[in-house]
Design goal:
The complex is a heterodimer.
Chain A: H1 2-10, H2 22-44, H3 51-65, E1 69-71, E2 77-79, H4 83-90, H5 92-110, H6 118-144, H7 148-176, H8 181-213, H9 227-231, H10 238-260, H11 266-274, H12 298-328
Antiparallel strand pairs in A: 1-2
Chain B: H1 17-20, H2 23-39, H3 45-62, H4 66-72, H5 80-83, H6 86-89, E1 94-100, E2 103-108, H7 109-135, H8 138-147, H9 152-182, H10 195-225, H11 243-265
Antiparallel strand pairs in B: 1-2
Helix pairs in contact in B: 2-7, 2-11, 3-7, 3-11, 8-9
Amino acid sequence: MESQWLDGLALGLHIPDGFLTTPVALAWWVLTVVAIAVAVRRTGSELDERQVPLMGVMAAFIFAAQMLNFPVLGGTSGHLLGGALAALLLGPWSGVLVMAVVVGLQALLFQDGGLLAMGANIFNMGVATALVGYGAGMPLLRLFGGRSWGLAIVGFVVAWLSVMVAALLTSVQLVLSGVPAAVAFPPMLFVHTFIGIGEGLITFAAIAFIIATRPDLVKSLAGVVSPAGLERRAGGGLIGGVTVVGLLFAVGAALASPLASGDPDGLERVAEDQGFLGRASDAPYAILPDYTIPGIDGSISTILSGVIGVALVFVLIYGITQAVRARRGDAPNA
Amino acid sequence: MSLTSSTLERYVDRISPVHALDARVKVLMTLGYILTLAFLPNGEWAALAGLAGLLWWGVWQARIGLGLVLRRAFVALPFALVAVSLVFARPGAPLFDLTIGPWQLTASDAGLIAFISVVIKSWLSVQAALMLIATTQVVDVFLALRAFRLPTVLVAVMAFAYRYLFVLIDEASRMLRARECRSAAHHGRRGGGSIGWRAAVVGQMVGTLFLRSYERSERIYVAMLSRGYRGEVRTLDTQPLDSRDRGTLIGVLATLALIIYAALVW
C-alpha cells in the first residue's frame, strides 16, 4: 500500500529540494506567503472556532482522498490532486488554506516535496489549482444554470484545467532553474493531460454524489447546482456545452504545442531546408509571433506567452459568462 | 495495513542527544542546512562531503540508523530524471554525443557536474528533513512553527489535519478494501467496467469520504466544545531554550556558515 501510494504521488508535481535554484524557490515562497496571508484574511471573518476543526479535517480528507485510486492502463493508476474539488466544495480561500496544509504536511511528514521548494509546491498544487478551480468553475456553473450535464462538463473541465496549470507552473519553475524548456514542458504537460482526465472524472463524480446526498453541506455551490437540477435530463444545450469543452481543450492543446518543442516544427523545418522561409511573412495580427514575446528572448519569453495564453482563456471564459448573463438578464449570484 | 507504520514516528520516542534538543532548534538547523545546500555552487565536492559528514554524524548521534535514512531519502530520486537534461543543456567542454531520433545531444562537463550536484543536494536535503521528523514529535514541530509567528489559525488547522490524517487514511483504506472485496474478476482478466465507470466509482468513494469527514468534524467540534474549547489550542509546553540547545544551534549554524564561506572564497 505504501509504495503504491508513494508511486502515485511521485508521478505528481512535488518538487524536491535541490531542483529549483534558490532565487526561484524564494520568489515562489514570497508569492505563497502572500496568497496564504490573503486566504487567512479573507476566511478570517468566517474562520471562527468552529471552522478550525472543519478545515483541519478537510485537509486530512484531501490527503486521504488522494489515496483512492483506480487502475487506468498498463499498471498506472489515476488519483486525485484535489485542489479544484476543495475550492468548489469549500470556497476559494478555504480551499487555498486546506491545500496549503495538505502540501505542507506531505513535505513535512512524508518528504514528498522539499522544504525550500515548498513555496513553489504549495503555489502550484494549492493556490493555483484552488483559484483556477473556483475562478473558472463558478462562472461556468452559473452559465449552465445548474443542469446535470453542466456540472459534468464544468467539474471535468475545471479539474483538468487546474492540473494543467499546476503542471505548467512546475515546468516554468524548472525552466527558470535552468532545465531546458524542451525537456521540462512536453513530458510534464503530456503526462498531466491524462492525469488531468482522471482528476476531472473523479471531481465531477464526487461533486455530483455530494450534491445528491447532502446538498446542505456545500454552501459554495448552493443556488448554482441543486439536487433538482441533477434530476433534469440533458437537453439540446448539450451540443453547445460539448463545443465549449472542445474549444477549451483546443486552446489547451494549442498552448501546449509551442512549448512542446523549441525546435522548428515540421513545416518550418521544411521551409528552412527548402530555403523559402525568408519569403514567408508573419501574419499582421500575430500578437505572440512564434509564441514568443518580441524583445524578450529565450525560454522566459516562451513561458510568458504561455502565461498570457492561460490568462486569455480566463478572460474568454469570463467574457462568455458575462455576455450570456447579460442576455438572460440574470441577477448577479442568481 | 494502515499508513501509520510507514511514517518515522516509531523513532521519535527514542532517547538520544538529538531527540533531547528543542524542536525550535531542530527546525532552524534543518532549514539552515537545506538553505546552505541551496546556496552552494555546483561542483563543490569538498563542501558537499563536509555537509554530508555533518548530517551523518547527527544521524549517528540520533541512533536511528544511517541505512534507514539513506534508503528513505531515495523518495526524491524519480525527479532526478528531469535533471538528467542538465547534462546536455549546460555549455562546456563536450564529453560525448548522443543521437536520439532526429536530435543530436552533446553532453558537457559543466552539465554533468550540475546534474551530479543537483542530485546529491536533493538527496541530502531529503535526509535532513527525514532527520527532523524522525527525532521530533510532530506536535513539537507545530509549536515551534507557532513560536516562529506563523498565523495561529494556520498552525491550528495543520495540527488538526495531522491529528485526523491517519484516522481518515484508515477510513480510505477500508473503502479500498471493500471495493476489492466486491470486485470479483475472472482469473487473468480485469474486473470492472470502462475507465469512466471506474473513475465514477472512485468519485463516489471520494464523495462518501467527504461526507464522513464532514460529519466527523462536526462530532469533533461538539466533543471539544463540551471539554471547554474556545477556539485556541492551549499548551503548557513553552520552555525556554537551555544552554545545550543554544550551544548546538550556534555550533551547527557556524559550521554551515564556515562551509559555505570556504566553498565561495576558496
